[in-house]
Amino acid sequence: MIVLALVAILFFGGAIAWASEALDARMPRAVALLSLLASAAVLLIFCFSSSPGVMLAGGQWWVLESWAWIPRFGISLLVGVDGLSLLLLLLTLFLGLIALGAAWNEIQERVGFFYFNLLWTIAGVVGVFTALDLFLFFFFWEVMLIPMYLIIAIWGHENRAYAAMKFFLYTQVSGLLLLLAILTMSYLHFVQFSRFSFDYFDLQNVVIPGALQTWIMLGFFVGFATKLPIFGLHSWLPDAHSQAPTAGSVLLAGVLLKTGAYGLIRFTLPLFPEASADFSSIAMTIAAIGILYCAKVAFAQQDIKRLIAYTSVSHMGFVLLGIYAWNLYGLQGAVMTMLAHGLSSAALFMLAGGLQARFHTRDMELLNGLWVKLPMLSAMALFFTVAAVGMPGLGNFIGEFLSLLGAFQSNRVATIFAALGLVLAAVYSLWVIQKMFHGQLRVPSQYASAGDLTLIELLCYALMAAGLVWMGMYPQSFLDVSEVSLLYLQSLGGGGE
Amino acid sequence: MIFLFYTAAIVALIATIAVIISTNVVHALVYLIISLLSVAVIFFALGAPFAAMLEAIVYAGAIMVLFLFVMMMLNLGQTTQDEEKEWMQPRLWIGPVTLVALLLVQMTNVLLTQDVDLRPIEVGVLEISVLLFGPWLLAVELASMLLLAGLVAAYHLAKK
Amino acid sequence: MQNWIGLLPAFPLAGFVLLVLSRGRMSKTAASFIGAGSVGLAFVLAVLISIEFLNSGAQSFSKTLWVWMQVGELDTGFSFYLDGLTLVMILIISGVGFLIHLYSTGFMADDPDFARFFSYMNLFVASMLVLVLADNLILLYLGWEGVGLCSYLLIGFWYQNPANGYAARKAFVVTRVGDTSMAIGLFLLFSQLGSLNIQEILVLAPSQWSTGSGMAVAASALLLGGAVGKSAQLPLQTWLPDAMAGPTPISALIHAATMVTAGVYLIARTHVLFELAPSVQLLVAFVGLATLLMAGFTAMMQRDIKRILAYSTISQIGYMFLALGVGAWSAAVFHLMTHAFFKALLFLAAGTVILSLHHEHDIFKMGAMRRRLPVSFWCFIVGSAALTALPFTSGFYSKDAILLAALAHPTYGMLLWVGGVLGAFMTALYSFRLVFVVFFGSSHYAAHEAAPHDDHAAVVENTSPAMFFPLLILAGLSLFGGLISVPVDAVFAQSGVHEEAHVSQFLHTLMILIPILGVMISWLLYGSVPYEKAGAHLRQRLVQSPLGGWLNRFWFSGWGMDKLYQTLLVQAFLMLAHINRKDVIDIAFNGTAFVARFANSALVLTQTGNMRWYAISLVAGLVIVIGLGVFR
Amino acid sequence: MDFIPYEHGLILAAILFVCGLVGVLTRRNIVFVLMSLEIMLNACGLAFVVASSRWQHAEGQVMFLMILTLAAAEVAVGLGLIIQMYRRFHTVDISVLNEMKG
Known about the structure:
With about 500 residues, chain A is mainly alpha-helical.
């Protein structure tokens, strides 16, 4: 029930938020806050009050429930929460609140519809992280994308139509491949067990002949990797991130990218162990190239949001690397990177959004030496940049270190090249700090009166910073939660190493 | 009967060609009527008196009258005729005519591969009616719907 | 007391947190109280811990504060490990650190960002303590990166000047190259040995690897990469001279006494690995030798007082590497300690000179400061004497030990020794050049250049006791620090046998005399009455000869390494980045959109809107289809 | 009674059809175009009737009837369109109507 309750709160909250705009323009955000808090409370109460109850096939599930939906095709409302899902759900709701904080004063038109889209995106993500029926999963996958498309297309910046269309095309085309792969899986289940099934556990039993397995695996891989995104399929992301409103960027970078990684961990590798094992060296090479290439491209950007977007792609390379290492270190590293990058990139996008709100530009050439003027904002920027560089003691380091540690055991060359990304990360990050925050103050003169952080912003940043420190200093609290489920998934996709 | 067929065929051909090269609309219309009537004669020669009747009455009669009315409403005068002459440049029609001639060659080629003679056995109204109100009833209904639609559309379109 | 070891880094860390949270609104008194006080408390605690540790007679002590990461075989905690080596390090860090903090309260008194300065300093001390206390390599890496970050922040402390920012970035990025090598080394160690706990590695490695095996060579070479970056040795030394852009106390604390010696600490800590890889160990020695010579020659040519000291630091760390390379572990640590004393002293004294001359760095614009700044002068004399290893100063004992050990090296002993002695000669030359040019001769300081409103009399020594007390203590330590014995024998118990070498009396005497000779030559060139006449003429001729001029420029530029890296790496990277600013992948994907649009505009030409055209195309299609059907 | 060669009837239909096609393709006056269409439809009808004769079956003529109806409806709508066009553009030149140009 817990999952349905979460999704329902968010769905109905969204609808109510939209409707409540008729009463007062400030109502939608209050409704959105309430529903997010309510769902967060439900989740927290749930995960503190219960322990993983259901053990199934070595997996440890807090929840594993199923209701019939379209029995004729073997489609059910099968949802489950294990450690991996739980961590990502917490991240989702946390960043949902942060995104709300970012949107609080920024969104001034069509407010109700905005919060509707925001909540529905979050609801879609919650669904994605919990659905174990592949049809249901795909349903939520689409639910998550369309409101996000609207958020970019309606409330975005100057080039929003282009960015939104690009986002839409990429995700839809890759989603189509995913759907085809899912349907093929279901059909194979029909052939072998004479009934259709989209059930995650059923599909694990399907025996897929060699070449076909590679093709279906690629369908899943491309579907998820576009979302991650990997090198080569990443070019939607800089546009989408830079054009989206701040809340949209926060959700995109913080949460939506993680759905791709989640899909890889949950579905691609466990369902297609042999094909994935064969593919792992390619994937790790792609990851290493992506880390270096996108770091290099990031360095050349002038638009601060584009820069952060490219760094996101670069960091997601570590996730891919960790996943395809397919040992516990790599997986834990990938999960930690997902969590930590969720916070740090969300914070960086929020900072960029804050700067845009203050100075109406994202051009680094026009904004220099902000430390003098905005010391608190600059200090926050420094903190999160340092986090993104992978400073030990903060969450990102734990993730990247474990990813690389795991990856080193399965592919040394790729790991060594990926590790060079640490140097490039320092190069572009410090360049940003130098360009924007150090040096002589120079801002567009008509906005020279912009003030430092507001209370809401300060609260958001403080929460995220605390989260990163927690992850960096005591990551064990996160590692413990995800360990059993990762071991379970690893046992499914045994042939990874 | 053979004689009837070939004379009517020649008349139909000449009249048709006259239709497409004529510059005066009314003249063309008259040629068209002649062409249709000769086709009616051919029908008769092929032993299809009912079809011949309908051809004469509906085509040459009703439809062409409709054309005539429209001609009168449009009242296209001498200027139109001059325009028509201007438009009848060889460079304009040589391409389409070549293409179409090619088509004709192809069709003739196909048709000449068989060699069967026609025995004109009269097919009367009765047989047609049996078919029309038997297996083809649905087609008849559809045709009536089509006519109704045409009626409504024509009324609507011609309205001011 | 030992159980409170966790508080050691916690004190400065708490100071950092308090200072950050104050957001610059704290009064300077309170800030300096917190900033220096927290490090002072750490020092007191370090002393108490040392006393207890030494009295207990135990070899080592370790304490786990909490579990950090536990994944599979990887089991690391926030655990501290204490032995003789660590003890030396924590005492240096907290002791010298405290003195420099104290000095900074005077030095930075006029800076508006006073609290920020102390917050970074405290964070640095905390990170450095974690670095040396760490019982596993990941925690060491945490401290390692932490000190790098603080170094970055403090070099670029006066952030409004882009040059400082450039220097700071350069420092961070160059050391990061080494750090990455070290990180890869950690991955390798873990994948081979299944542990990152230092003591376990030191036990496991000899049991699993034979001497000279490929893995041992790879692992120690990778660790050496990290050490080379942090300790500014060849080929990653280029960042340190630029790092002098930071405030002078920073140069003293981070870029002389503590952080830059972290590489030495790392190699000493993991010495077992290096002993397993003799080729790498020899490489360490030669890196040290090359660096100390290169930096010595470069220091000769510099004009900036702090850059001279920076190159001398590089050179002295070269000696430590030389010692490490020949297996004289405790000599290296000993020199690390004495170097911390006299180099901190030199930097702090230089700081007083710089401060009294309104941030003038060019030594040829100083001169005759001996009477105006007597305390600085005497401190400089003491520091330079120790640096030059004049007999009975602290530097003498440590450098003597190193050179003797180098000579005892079985194969390359003579080569290493000659190089080291030549380096010592250069050291004498450049350090006393500095002393003579700055403190003797006639004054070249033009006050109006720096501060138009001050008259010449403004050149007075800052008499704040907060600044003098550290100078005096450090001067004392520089003189007599050689009498302290470092309690590291237990740490290196199983190795370091060839430290007690027998050396001929002749060589030993030569070794002692050569620095003195260097000082005398330096006097001839720069110090003899007034050096402008005799020395300057000679120097002039040297510089004007083609070879001399070339060498001058070559040495001045730090052997062209900066330029080399600039062209080879920086420019190439910038070019690559700017060529691909638009992201070629994006262009490829947009290419599909472009092709579609082009095809559209081509095909749209067929849509003329003319009915006859459509009919003709229909007929043409018909002709073709029938043609295909009929004439097949 | 003599027989008419089956193919001659069909060739006549083909020639008439082709004449109509030439008209459609070459004329710019929309009235002529419509007339040419009528010729083509009529030719089709002729082909059906010939076929009906050939196979001795009435269904060909049923088809002719269908074509007749179609032609009637088409003419009605077509003429209505011509009137509209003339009202709007004051011409019967079909080339004027190229709004659909891409």
